[in-house]
Protein 1
Amino acid sequence: MLLAYLDPDQRAFLTRIAQAVAAMGGHVYLVGGGVRDLLLAQSQGQTITLSDMDLVLDQVSPDAIGELAQQMSRWRPGALVQPHPKFHTCDLLWPDLALDLALARRETYPHPAANPLVTPADIHQDLHRRDFTINAMALGLHPAGVLLDPFDGQGDLQRKSLRVLHERSFADDPTRLWRGVRYGVRYGLQFAPETVAQWHATLASGVYEYWRQQPGQAPALQTRLRAELHYLWQMAQWVQAGRWLEALGAWACIHPELHWTPALERSLRTASYVLRHHPHRHRCLTELLVSYVPPADRYAVAHCLDLPLAAQKRLAQLEHLETQLPALPALPVSQICQTLEPYEPELLWLALFRQRGNIRNILRNYLQYWSHEHPPLNGKDLRELGYQPGPQFRQILSRLRSAYLDREITDRTEAIAYVQRYFPRVSPGQ
Ligand code: ATP
């Protein structure tokens, strides 16, 4: 019995859910990744705790979702409950478990890469809408113990094979390839030859290129693809996944000239390390990836992926900034600062991750040190030296800062001497 490989507390929770659904006269199944992971646990003789569960209800009224969600949050308090009545689903989120509750449904795609149209269906049809055979299995909680496996997902798990369910699968939803690569890297699986052939045929048909140019109409090439990129960056083996996607020609879904080159990988590695504790690391990596699209198309691609407006703006400005960078090594520090000051730090970091050698060092010095340096005198000091506040103040402070950055002056005494030399005070009456 597969559930024997599940943590006993989670098993007891599922049993309680099964009893409640039985009392409603319906059926309930664990589906998707939970079944796959239990089969893997069984093959290794291990017990697992799921951090993510997908439950499908069949033969119940749509109200059953809300009722069951309420009961579940009583049995296991502390859930954040997010119902989606229009789709007959409900997400329950505990600190240690994300549970997705849904009515069995069928999905049809009005055109490639669209959001699917959802209609109620039974558990068998529900399994036909899924991505890979290894995720298209359902384990009955009530009726208990039944394993539905219409596409031989168990066989594919044993063969370590990722197989889509039908030949239009990738046209319907290109994000499935990204999902497949994630599973492949995580579990050591390979795409089945016919699945690779289906992917290449879909790519060659030009559907992605066509639908990518219809903003807002192909979420699987836009917002949903962006979400997949974010999952990719969360993987420890994102470099392996990025290379695999390159070998499959998949980056063309974002732009025909985007490739996972050694230069791109190096930039991403640097950024990933520097930003390892940054709360928006994944967003920054996606922005950096898009910066490897030819300059004229960066903004359009960022807009299409629905990156934050600030990121779209940065990507549009990057080319202008980068035309200034080759001149920097020949300039004194004060002029480097004047050149870089008009640009916001996030844009400069983006440029830094793309650069190497001298220019990268200059950008790093600017961002970490020079941009924060203040001259040894401030406005109050100038007043004490007898200067009157006014337009000259700003000029003196700016000259002082330049002199300080260029190490013409290094301390307060030298700064006072500098001011008195270059800005002698005019005594009243002179
Ligand atoms: P993970 O272990 O990464 O959470 P999972 O298989 O549980 O893997 P989810 O993203 O939680 O993945 O999705 C749950 C299930 O929903 C999948 O197993 C799959 O059956 C189905 N599914 C999710 N996304 C798609 C998709 N784009 N196309 C088809 N089926 C999908």
Note: The first helix runs from residue 8 to 23.
Protein 2
Amino acid sequence: MTLKELLYSSPVIPVLVIDSLDDAVPLARALVRGGLPNLEITLRTDVALEAVRKIAREVPDAQVGVGTVRTVDDIRRAWDVGATFAVSPGLTPALLDLEHSIPLLPGAMTPTEIMTAFDAGFRCLKLFPASFAGGADFLRAIAGPLPDVTFCPTGGIREDDLLRYLSMPNVACVGGTWITPKDAVARKDWDMIETLARRAVAIANEQPTAAGRSGSAAPEAGEEDPGAALESLRS
Ligand code: 3PG
């Protein structure tokens, strides 16, 4: 699966900050039951990498990504524990040059950053922080001059914003923490998290182009070539 296909396969990537390793698997299972199997575990807690390892082993229906990746070493660690993809809040020369790794979704928030990533071969980017970058209006404004980039906007997005973001032609999915409220995790209220995930999926299905979303992820020229590892890594 290319990164683009992964992004189009589910409307929301829950962004998870896991403090307790015991929460990792039940949290991931609740999200998968709710219809959101693509998960981003942020490298912001001591147990983050072990949480990725556990989810990758014990929740086979989940696609586990590692978030808050800032260095090449972070990418290596993500690879070592079995992550499927990596997400970065920005882009650095070292990350842009990385040639052999798991698929990376780098962050960008200006046309120049988007063009820099595009020049390095990336076709899928995280608009971050989306709400400060101009949100859906910004994405609409750059769809004309920068049409070949697919976004996963993240940062400041809530349930009420979801439909608007997903209706943008250059948005595959969004990322966010609203699906996993801290108090619900603290109470181990997995049912509530499953309900929030289901609600997000229902909202995504309201948008007129929902049926075509997975179709938009059809492989483009070169993507189906198994030898084009770098291409699929970045697109
Ligand atoms: C993050 O860095 O935590 C993500 O961008 C999610 O942000 P959010 O809490 O605004 O959804």
Note: The longest helix spans residues 190-206.
Protein 3
Amino acid sequence: MNVRQRRDRLSALLDRHNLAAALYLSGENVRYLSGFTGSNGQLFLDRDRTWLLTDGRYAAQAAEQADVDEILIYERLDEALRKLLHEPVRTGFEAAAVTVAQWRDLTQKLPKLADAVPLPTDAVELRIAKDDDELNAITRAIQIAEEAWTSVQQAIVPGITERELSLKLEWTIRSAGSRTVPFEFIVASGARSAMPHGVASDRTIEEGDPLTVDFGAEADGYFSDMTVAGSVGRRDPWIEEIVAILEAAQEAAFAVLEPDVPCADVDAAARRVIEKAGYGEAFSHSLGHGVGLAIHEAPRLSRLSDQHLPVGAVVTIEPGIYVPGRGGARIEDMVVVTSDGYRKLTSLPKSAYCWNQGDS
Ligand code: ZN
Ligand code: ZN
């Protein structure tokens, strides 16, 4: 789907919400709707035309990338918007992409904008269902990360620090063509494996340590996100036990995936397995999230979500068990919802790993 087709879809949405114009402020949505990838850009659309607004640093890049009716190069955003807001029309703006202070400043300089209303959720969360081009990019981002992982995991021996492992993985991923990495990798070993977001520290990994590694790559602006867990040098029966529970929890979530399934039901299916195994309290986050141009994007697979999963939605399924003082594990795969259920996009094994086991 090209950006004009995306905007046609958006027009219908705006009509339904009685909005005559919309102002997009997040880099991801500006890119999604125009093709422009610069770090500063806004998109203003009315019923007939689309403008990309950016500053002089991006004039050439905007002219090359942005498929819009007009590009406005500005020194001050309010002055550029002043040219576009002639008569009072009902305008929606991407409220989550600005701070209260930024919006207050903008509307003080441009009182016409003060009547703008936050865009409804469906006009902000445009990117949930991925098209084929997006799925291809995500698949490449997965492939880069998985190949890097496969080559790096031989380095997981007692004596390596978490940070060394994280850097090796990042170097390999970026060398393979990933322009950036989607987030600071989580390399959580020993008792730190009980931290769901234990980014790599200077801790030295020791024989017998549990280890969870959460990483990903980028391709054409799209991200991948995956997690593996196990133990180093020697099998840890407790880690094997909890990873087996996590695998069963993932299977339970996969089993309910179908078009339009409520996100809360997918979370519940996995959570039930973990609760039954006695670790309900130890699963302290939601089951997953959308991945695309942003590493965490809508929808959220959470008990609190009132969203549904359309065909084309790409989400993670990432149950975890964390016992403070002892350790923990998480496994994470990416799936796409299809008309007949789902397809798993990631392919690394998720059973408990035992890295560089000795000859014992
Ligand atoms: Zn992750
Ligand atoms: Zn994730």
Note: Residues 132-355 form a domain with the Creatine Amidinohydrolase fold (CATH 3.90.230.10).
